[in-house]
Amino acid sequence: MKSVVVILLMISATFKVSANCGEKKTALFFANGMFNDRVGASGGLWALSKEFGQKFPNDKIDVLAIAFNTDEKALLQLNQVFEQKTKDLGVSFWKSVTKFLSMPDENIKKIIQIYLSEQKARDKDLSIQISSYENFLKQGFKIITVSHSQGNFYTNFSFESLNTDQTQMISVATPASSVYGDGPYFTFKTDAVIAYIPGALPPNRTKTSPGIADHEFIKHYLFDEPARNEILSAINLAYAQQAAEAQSLNPKDAYFNSDMNGVLKWFVKHLEKKSKFSNSECLAAEALFSVFALHGRNCEKRDFATFAEAISDCKTSSSEGETACPYYRGMDLGRPYEAYYPSEVSEHLSISPNCKITTYKEFKEQMGSADLLASIKLLESLKEK
Amino acid sequence: MPYIPSKLNAGKIKLSYVALGTFFILAVFFPFMFLMDRQSLPIIDAQLGGWEDVQSKISAQYPNNEELKNAALQMGFALQRAVDDPRSAQTIDAELNDGMSCVLGVLVKQKISNIEAAKVLEDIRDLVVFNSERQQRYIRFNGKLNGTVLTAPNDDLKKCKPLPNGATE
Fold first, then answer.
1. A135 inside 8 A of chain B by CB
2. Stretch (H or E) spanning A304
3. pLDDT in tens, A209-262
């Protein structure tokens, strides 16, 4: 009943669109580790953002920046050992450093343990990076930082200091024992550098083609397709979680257009009557949630046309991985419904468990083209004149 | 209490302590710190040179791709400036960022995959930072950027510029 009231309030708030309309922007940061130089960190962030843009074209990243970290003395020390050991091989320091670090050598192990320790990272002056983050927050940005290796310590410390829910952290190859805000982390079981770090979060991913070192951001983590997809999906999830925060069900924040009233009333009725949805109705409901979530920016079109498009996209999408259809998108992310949507969604799924489709295979088995057509027909009837 | 001759007043004693301290700082402490720094960090008093060498390496790397060669030379020249004068890292970094943006712009235009394009940036870096001395200077260049927030490159052909006079073959 409570949810019905909330949705009715939401409908009443549909006319307040312009009052709360303000631009929300997202900044994607990359916090590099000490084995990543300026060029490597730049290439990593650029490739990550391009891949993200291609996989999630609706998620707009407004600013890209590098929270740059290095350790001159440690690298010089390492470089000296590197030069001695690879004198005649003519190999590049930056490209070979992680492979070099995986060599069973007590001196190398000691250097890594000293310089990649939390204690050492605590001594670093992070004031410039923290004030830069603060400036972005003041300008209304949400911040998503992908941290690699040692960069994880610095992001943890910076975000702890900022202490705001406007920051999200994604960890890659982390030597740290935690991720700020319980963000996701990805460390290969064959990451030889992290293997040296006592207290680091345990490795949790298997590389498709395991190598000797498996620690570099571009060469190992981005190059491995499953890992890359998981990192991109984690950014998307962080993006959407921010969206969910931006779209409280509080009437002041809700901003559906008035032409969605018919759809919302239909959905409210379903919750009231506890009537089980048919396949075509499941499709329409998922499209409604998709329009509800959108991407967290005020002024997005939460209107009937977007809703109708969400269903039509399922009709036209023919291959796995296409992201336009909300069902496909949800499955692609493997995202839990609960993480994205308000409590009404859980209520709806308890009434119509058949609507909870979590794999592409299930979708193909359960939904036929007749369901899609019926859903479009239903949609036409729901449009408020 | 130590014995203080009556002729010396407290003010004179203080003054002599200050003089002694100043002498110690100027004659012992600063030179010591300077020497320590010289021992642990690379000596970068002089320009390194060797751009012609780098230029030939880059040209040889991309013999049949004029556009990429020119972009790589632009990025390579910025990296050469970085190893020449790591102390001016903040200024040179903007040029390096433009160089990387130009290279990425060319690679996107030539439909190279994102991951491969990022690797090309590293290839160009390695053509410039190819020996121990260059490596040490480049580490120092990176060190000078430590703890800051840097602009990320974009694939942008508008960032492509001709090499300055005197830097061309």
1. no
2. helix A304-316
3. 998 889 999 999 999 999 999 999 999 988 876 654 444 333 334 456 677 778
Q: Which residue of B has its CA nearest to A38?
A: B142
C-alpha A158 chain-centroid distance: 19
Beta strands in A226-370 (DSSP E): none
pLDDT tens digits along A301-342:
677 888 888 777 776 555 544 445 666 555 544 444 545 566
Q: What pTM was estimated for this model as a whole?
A: 0.67
- Residue A54 to residues A131, A228, A232, Cα–Cα distance (Å): 31, 13, 10
| ipTM of the complex, rounded to two decimals | 0.78
Give the nearest partner residue to B143 out of A29, A72, A95, using CB atoms: A72
Among chain A residues, the shortest Cα distance to B75 is held by: A39
Residue of A nearest to B144 (CA): A72
Contact between B100 and A42 using a beta-carbon 8 Å cutoff? yes
- CA–CA gap between residue A291 and residue A216 (Å, rounded): 38
Q: Which residue carries 């859980």 as its tokens?
A: A346
CB–CB of B139 and A39 under 8 A? no
Cα gap A43→A32, rounded to integer Å:
11
Q: Round to whole Å and give the CA distance between A171 and A177.
A: 11
- Closest CB to A69: pick one of B93, B147, B153: B147
